[in-house]
Write a structure and sequence with these properties.
The complex is a heterodimer of chains A (449) and B (228).
Chain A (H helix, E strand, L loop, with lengths): L11 H27 L10 H32 L6 H25 L14 H22 L5 H17 L9 H36 L3 H22 L12 H12 L1 H16 L8 H23 L4 H7 L3 H31 L7 H35 L3 H37 L11
Helix pairs in contact in A: 1-2, 1-14, 2-3, 2-4, 2-6, 2-12, 3-4, 4-5, 5-6, 6-7, 6-9, 6-12, 7-8, 7-9, 9-10, 10-12, 10-13, 12-13, 13-14
Chain B lengths: L2 H34 L5 H12 L7 E2 L2 E2 L9 H4 L2 H9 L1 H4 L12 H15 L19 H11 L7 E2 L2 E2 L22 H9 L1 H4 L12 H12 L3
Antiparallel strand pairs in B: 1-2, 3-4
Helix pairs in contact in B: 2-6, 4-6, 7-10, 8-10
The chains are: A mainly alpha (449), B mainly alpha (228).
């Protein structure tokens, strides 16, 4: 996979650059939030905590989405054996998404515009523009698959995931007066994204990368893919119940949510097994170690961050203590980075050298970025976990006042989040952005044969 | 099994589970609006709109959802009386100087709607969440129970005792057992009355009336009396 087969695959590149730039920005805002835990008056007037947090969360969604959209524009023509239906439409779509993003951020920062629910704070009319961007993307991708010579499991599953993502987002257009009803539907967006649609996208992209980097047989990969995504949805759809334990919904969710949630790690473990076996029994050596590391990292990160950290707090007997604490933040950071972030970077490091036609890349910067980001994230997850366990014990079980625990105990561990983020993760993600602008540059690398 | 068969299992199975989820959703939403949540009045709906419009949920949690920067507000109506809550929402700095809670410049109507909204949220059947912490009795003895209650009720958010707590809002209580504060008595009888209804003892005080049982008042009074 050293060169692209179809010129329209190059469309992916600007998506990757935009994604990486927003990733850097997301981390900067995350560090400001951590600093505000340690020094509560830090930038308090210029950037109140709630504004910083909505920025941090929304940038996460957008950089991951743009990364995966770029990966889709690269892999669907390859899978369909056809040029992309319309590269021009893809550029228009990117512009629409960026305008919506800038509009939403401007609304947050300067006009106090917010819809007030985490991850979906973007105020009207920006959600409509985001939805338009998603529709343009689906039209472009769908028509490419339809007119293509080949319809593979990877492109079908990828398209299903992206369509699911867009469909769930439409719920965001509705408003409800009852907070429980509001959060009931909000979880359809958040849960059915991360434990449904995003998993489909991740499984398809991972399958494609495994074939590209290991030479594993397509027929075997396709069968595995269907088994994995079927199990993801069969467990994940009713697994939404673990969000319905305490929000005013009937208590039968305690049983059904727990039952299906404990099964959710099964397909994740299968994916990890499949990924690791494919990597060990590779028929070709990876073109670059950076992509290889990110792919291997995502296999393990998915298993630990989404699987182990998720299942650890999914039973109601445990969740009643951990719900609404930093334990959730530890799972959130680990799962997003491990399951989706690392995979997006694996895709980007596989695809960009091919787009640039580079046979080999200089790996030093990319490997430094990998280790800085990964070690930084593991340390941050450890600090979040300790902060969360302390919070569970002191606030929930002993009953100490929330603010006492936050200022006198949690803040110490948030300092470690800040420190590890500042000395490892931020330099790592900055290095990644720089590397992305340089890899495959003719001055640095030999062209493809 | 062939790839086609697996694809069919994936497709039909997904549709089946989605149908089940839709069915459960219909039942859930019926039960939610038919008793598990109180009726939504216009004031509650407006209060919710203020809560979300000001993005309170990206500092506070509510129903356990949101950020972990400020206290969960699900049962806040049980912790603070309406008068104190209204004053706090209207001007946090005036109520507790130095607080990091920003002034949201709310109108009196918005404040009243928010208070109504918090009352409404308090009435949601949350399957007993958040769980009650270990009882003060677990600390062993009335004095230790009082010390724990002092922490549990958030007194350290405004008072300092022996260097622990947030200074500058309420008086330092390190020596309240021997040194009266602000020309008010420090007898057990007065401290009990003060805890039961601060405003009745000193109109205009920023000290909130906490929901305390008679035993809790006794335990706190014994603890305060021990601070010498």
């Amino acid at each position: 996979m050293l060169t692209i087969k179809y010129p329209s695959q190059r469309v992916a590149y600007p998506f990757f650059i935009a994604s990486a730039a927003l990733f850097v920005l997301q981390v900067v805002f995350g560090l400001i939030l951590a600093a505000q835990f340690v020094w509560p008056t830090f930038l308090m007037d210029a950037l109140p905590f709630n504004v910083g947090r909505e920025t941090h969360l929304n940038l996460l969604v957008v950089w991951l989405l743009l990364g995966m959209m770029g990966a889709s524009y690269y892999l669907v023509p390859d899978e369909s054996e056809s040029e992309l239906y319309s590269p021009r439409l893809a550029y228009i779509q990117l512009a629409v998404m960026l305008v919506a993003g800038v509009g939403a951020l401007t609304g947050f920062w300067f006009f106090g515009m917010s819809r007030g629910k985490p991850f979906t704070e973007a105020a009207m009319p920006w959600p409509w523009l985001i939805a338009l961007g998603a529709v343009l993307f689906l039209v472009n991708l769908g028509l490419t698959i339809i007119k293509g010579k080949r319809r593979t499991a990877i492109s079908v599953v990828l398209f299903s995931g992206m369509a699911g993502l867009a469909a769930m987002y439409l719920i965001n257009m509705a408003t409800f007066k009852n907070l429980t009803v509001d959060y009931y539907w909000w979880w359809w967006i958040i849960h059915l994204w991360v434990e449904g649609a995003w998993e489909l996208i991740a499984a398809a992209v991972a399958g494609y990368l495994l074939m590209a980097l290991t030479g594993v047989e397509r027929s075997r990969m396709h069968k595995w893919l269907y088994v994995e995504v079927a199990l993801v949805l069969f467990t994940g759809i009713i697994g939404i119940g673990h969000h319905y334990y305490w929000i005013g919904t009937p208590n039968y969710w305690l049983f059904w949510g727990a039952l299906f949630s404990v099964l959710e790690p099964v397909p994740i473990a299968l994916m990890a097994y499949d990924g690791l076996v494919s990597m060990r029994r590779r028929k070709v050596e990876p073109a670059n170690r950076v992509a290889w590391y990110w792919l291997g990292g995502s296999v393990l990160g998915h298993l630990l961050g989404a699987g182990v950290w998720g299942v650890a707090m999914t039973l109601p007997q445990i969740n009643k203590w951990t719900h609404g604490t930093q334990v959730t933040a530890s799972h959130g950071h680990f799962a997003f980075y491990g399951a989706f972030g690392m995979l997006a970077l694996a895709a980007i490091y596989t695809m960009v050298p091919a787009i640039r036609g580079a046979a080999k890349i200089k790996e030093g910067r990319g490997l430094w970025a990998f280790w800085l980001m990964t070690s930084g994230m593991l340390a941050m997850v450890a600090a979040f976990t300790i902060a969360g366990v302390l919070q569970v014990y002191l606030h929930r079980m002993v009953g100490l006042d929330f603010m006492t625990v936050r200022t006198e105990y949690v803040a110490f561990w948030m300092f470690w989040v800040l420190l590890c983020g500042a000395v490892a993760f931020l330099p790592g993600v900055s290095l990644y952005l720089w590397d992305l602008l340089r890899i495959g540059h003719p001055k640095e690398h030999a062209p493809a044969l | 099994m062939t790839e086609k068969q697996l694809a069919r299992i994936f497709g039909y199975g997904t549709v089946l589970f989605l149908i089940v989820l839709v069915g459960m959703s219909v039942d859930t939403l019926h039960k939610v609006t038919a008793g598990r949540t109180p009726p939504v009045t216009d004031s509650v709906a407006r209060g919710k709109a203020v809560f979300q419009g000001k993005n309170c949920n990206d500092c506070h949690t509510i129903l356990g959802i949101g950020a972990y920067y400020a206290p969960d507000l699900t049962k806040v109506s049980g912790r603070r009386d309406d008068v104190w809550m209204a004053r706090w929402l209207a001007d946090p700095q005036a109520t507790k100087p130095g607080t990091t809670m920003p002034n949201q410049r709310l109108t009196p109507e918005q404040v009243a709607d928010l208070v109504a909204f918090f009352h409404w949220v308090h009435g949601i059947d949350t399957n007993n969440w958040p769980p009650a912490p270990a009882g003060p009795g677990a600390a062993g003895g009335t004095l230790a129970a009082g010390a724990l209650l002092f922490q549990q009720k958030g007194c350290t958010g405004c008072h300092v005792v022996k260097g622990q707590g947030v200074p500058g809002v309420g008086p330092d209580l390190s020596l309240i057992g021997t040194q009266p504060y602000d020309a008010l008595p420090n007898t057990p009888e007065f401290l009990g009355q003060w805890l039961r209804d601060p405003t009745a003892q000193k109109p205009g005080t920023t000290m909130p009336r906490l929901p305390l049982t008679a035993d809790e008042v006794d335990e706190l009074v014994e603890y305060l009396g021990s601070l010498k």
